[in-house]
């Protein structure tokens, strides 16, 4: 069940897509879970939001900046792993 077609439906002032339960189970997503949406090269990526406990003194803004730096320099960081 890797390929399905769904219709985008109107829900109030927003739009939505329904997902088969089997899809959600395999993705580890349950009713009430928070999910993250990301737009990558014109494609929507949906994943379960993971809660991470940050060490004292490290806030989410710092982590966002760090993630951006890692994305920009991904190839360089991966090259360092092999050294």
Structure overview:
- The structure is a single chain.
- The chain has helices spanning about 20-25, 60-70, 75-80; strands at about 10, 15, 35-40, 45-50.
- It has about 80 residues and is of the alpha+beta class.
- The chain has a two-stranded antiparallel sheet. A two-stranded antiparallel ribbon has the order 3-4.
Low-confidence stretches: none
The value of Rg in angstroms is 17 Å
Kindly name the structural category: alpha+beta
Mean pLDDT metric? 87
Q: Fraction of residues in helices?
A: 25-40%
Oligomer: single chain
Q: Give the termini separation.
A: 41 Å
Strand order across the biggest sheet?
1-2
What is the string of helix and strand elements? EEHEEHH
Question: In percent terms, what proportion of residues is strand?
Answer: 15-25%
Describe the global form.
Answer: extended
Largest sheet: 2 strands, antiparallel
How many helical elements?
3
Throw out a few tags for this protein.
single chain; 83 residues; alpha+beta; two-stranded antiparallel sheet; two-stranded antiparallel ribbon; 4 strands; 34% helix; 22% strand
In short:
By secondary structure, this protein is of the alpha+beta class. The protein has three helices and four strands.
Q: What's the structural blueprint in terms of helices and strands?
A:
Elements: E1 9-11, E2 14-16, H1 21-27, E3 35-40, E4 43-48, H2 60-72, H3 74-81
Antiparallel strand pairs: 1-2, 3-4
């Amino acid at each position: 069940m890797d390929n399905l077609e769904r219709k985008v439906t109107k829900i109030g002032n927003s739009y939505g897509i329904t997902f088969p339960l089997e899809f959600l189970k395999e993705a580890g997503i349950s009713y009430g879970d928070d999910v993250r949406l990301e737009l990558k090269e014109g494609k929507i990526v949906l994943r379960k939001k993971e809660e991470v406990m940050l060490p004292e003194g490290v806030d989410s803004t710092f982590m966002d900046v760090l993630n951006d730096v890692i994305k920009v320099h991904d190839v360089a960081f991966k090259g360092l792993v092999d050294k």
